[in-house]
Amino acid sequence: QVQLVESGGGLVQAGGSLRLSCAASGIIFGPIIMGWYRQAPGKQRELVAGISDGGRTNYADSVKGRFTISRAYGKPTVYLQMNSLRPEDTAVYYCNVKPGRVGYDYDYWGQGTQVTVSS
């Protein structure tokens, strides 16, 4: 059974920084894409950033230049460094693991970690 354990959320003032971590345990088959999503109250869950096994990254336009996603070498662990935080970044942030190649079918989620940015 695969579990994703997140940490690093909290309360920070606007302009501050936080670093989220997510470690996956269990057996995951095939190449993977690890990502961070977020959901603010009353809004749909949205992709924040993703990273493949090969290190290719993608970001939501709203976080480009402020957030950086990275992976621990050889481990299913992903980080999200969040700088220049804004009140609109306030949300529950979820870690996610998806297959990086066609032929696999899974979609793992963490329990979520709250990020609150005060103005």
Describe the protein in words.
The model has no long low-confidence stretch (mean pLDDT 95). The chain has strands spanning 3-7, 10-13, 18-25, 32-39, 46-52, 57-59, 67-71, 77-82, 91-99, 108-109, 113-118. It has 119 residues and is mainly β. Strand 5 (46-52) and strand 6 (57-59) form a beta hairpin. The strands form 2 sheets. Strands 2, 4, 5, 6, 9, 10 and 11 form a 7-stranded mixed beta sheet that branches. Strands 1-3-8-7 form a 4-stranded antiparallel beta sheet, with no helix packed on it. It starts with a strand and ends with a strand.
Which key features would you list for this structure?
119 residues; mainly beta; seven-stranded mixed sheet; four-stranded antiparallel sheet
Q: Give the helix level as a range of percent.
A: under 10%
- The shape is globular
Radius of gyration: 14 Å
Order of helices and strands: EEEEEEEEEEE
Instruction: Please state the average pLDDT score.
Output: 95
Hey, roughly how much beta strand do the residues contain? over 45%
Main sheet specs: 7 strands, mixed
SS element count, helices? 0
Identify low-pLDDT runs: none
Please identify the oligomeric state. Answer: single chain
Content-based structural category = mainly beta
Q: Tell me the total number of β-strands.
A: 11
Cα(first) to Cα(last) distance is: 40 Å
